[in-house]
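pasting for ref
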Amino acid sequence: MALCSWGNRNILTMAIMIPHCLCFLVILPLPVTAQTQGNITLGSSLTAGQDSSPWESPSGDFAFGFQQIEAGGFLLAIWFNKIQEKTVVWSADGSQLAQSGSRIELTTDGRFILNDPSGQQMWSAPLAGTGLAYAAMLDSGNLVLATNASTTLWQTFDNPSDTLLPTQILSQGNNLVARDSETNYSSGRYKFSMQTDGNLVLYKINFPPSSANPSYWSTNTVGSGYQLVFNQSGLVYLTAKNGTMLNTIFSSEISTSTNALYQRAILEYDGVFRQYVYPKPSSSSAKSWPTRWSVQYPNIPENICTALTDDSGSGVCGFNSYCQMEDRRPNCSCPPGYNWLDPNNKMSGCVPTFVVQTSDEISGDFDFVQQVNLDWPNCDYAHYSGVPEDWCRENCLQDCFCAVAIFNNEDCWKKKFPLTNGKLDPSVERKALVKIRTNNSTLQQINGEIKKRNQTTLILIESVSLGSSVLFNIFFLVALVVVFYQHKKKNRATSQYQIALGTNTRSFDYNELEKATNNFNEKVGQGAFATVYKGRLDYENTSVIVAVKKMHSMENEGAKEFQEEISAIARTNHRNLVQLLGFCIEGQHRLLVYEFMCNGSLSDILFADQRPSWFTRMHIAVGTARGLHYLHEECSTQIIHCDIKPQNILLDNSFTARISDFGLAKRLKTNQTRTTTGIRGTKGYVAPEWFRSVPITVKVDVYSYGILLLELICCRKCLELEAEDDNQMVLADWAYDCYKEGKLDLLLQNDDAAKSDIKRVERLVMIAIWCIQEDPSLRPSMKKVLQMLEGCIQVSVPPDPSSFISSIQMP
């Protein structure tokens, strides 16, 4: 990669400067009058799924229309039309594929609009003016909308997706956004931005999005950069406002004449900006052309695995995985003892195939698999210097939080879940010790279930073939049809969930769960849509106590809650979330199998006569905050829980908080920060914006957490209608009054341990008041809440929330 400033370019660079400057004049947008033949007139349209021809450029090199991406799903796109690999260079909106029957139309009233089969608008081109007369698909790959006077109202070159073509310019304020995966055209995690300050930057889009997007490559041209130019010679370079070349981005020499090559530069889904060439088909030597694009060297950045250095997020390959460059591309791998969360997406992250260590398990059940030059550099929670490797190993074995130990030159780092930004590279001069379970407790996979059932089917087939009687054969053939029908029916019912669940869950038979729970005999909890039973399951000579959640009804809300819960929690992996072990979808039966929490829910102990200790309550408060922070900012799919309350905080044998019950949860798409939904949650914990019919954000969970934190401090419910003093009926009101008047000891009653820690009590009450602010934008993120709880940052004086709390009409 040549990054040369104007002042120090060598003689060779100066020699090629004049032709490049001439090329810069040539690549300015051509008047659309240059192509009158084949212009697309008003009233023209294309329909997805029909055999109508796309709108082609005059040479036929490019085409605009619907390209089928999946069964029943079509992408409105532009692609190279003459090569076997119909490579897409522009798409309208990859986040929602068009269904068969959707139509793109150049309307007679001057709009360019995509409607679904029912006529609802899916996308439209925002025109810069009126008087649209026609469209033109140019040989450059640019689709132009213009007036009769050839004034351009809109063009794809000014609205790129992830690709640049020769003669295309990326101006200040424009971006390329990588797709989510090789086959998923929705917006991904990376952006290539020609910023308004003149800097050309590659950065990772934070999840959830924020103003602090960490860059991993830039030209460092703040104040001087103006446009990124891709000329017909294959040169990609950055210019100043006066046209002076500042930096050469791609300057690979192409031996073949550029007139015989297709070219493109693309920000790919792995975060790397690459330039590709493809020889144009020729009738005389068609068989000699390759069937794939050839990448030009170098990549930007050259090593994406080591380029990403931000201290949060999942890295290139997702949580609990690691990245290694192979043949100039990042190769994602899972550590020993881990499998892919989504086998079809090798950037989805990994999950353990074993039950992770709990606080009461002996270290002898675990050991290490070591790997040199491997590290997850930003997720350590402890560091020790001057220690031998044996000490580092033993210390990690004795610590249930420790997932990996990193050792180098008498330095020991302990890493916790989720493991982030993993990288394997010779420059990483460290040894990774990955903790795995030696007494394997891996749950049986769905594939094992399918294999078992297939074996049963084969036995039945063999029985039919061995039968000597026609009647005997008929009997078994009927039985075979029934078995296949039931098997096919069950597979249809489970297929939608297998995609969401990934590889670390098991499909259970209803009879198996009925037996495990002693015919659903021991009830441990009940909600509006489900009842939870205690059970015991056997795995490879190991007995495991489980909680089996049985849905009451699969109609309307019950079915929706089941789907929400199984979709939300199946892709999570965190110590402060309850772990989903498996599921059952059989007929009308819908059950979820969770690890059993021996200390029940927080509500069971918080409001009992014997209150938990002050230390235990603070331990629960911090654990719950960590779980919410993971859901909001660290999980591969951002999740709003929507029902944080003591009944949904379960406690394991060490009273560690485990967030549960994801039946009301909402998952957000990439780049989505809010969603619309009906009122959810529980009276007293519901944020005020629920009652205003406005889109909600993760801040509704922050509000609920603030109420929960007050309950943990005071050991009382948020609403006590029977309170002797009316001023104490609403806990949030009372807590603020006590804080404002300097009488926090009134909240603590006979809790001597809390009274002796009154400074912390004051800080926690202030945090809670910040969390329950009426304006969601005033509430801190859960990351900031966690930092305040742990004392990493100071807590400022919160404003008075009473102006809205008293006005809320509780449902």
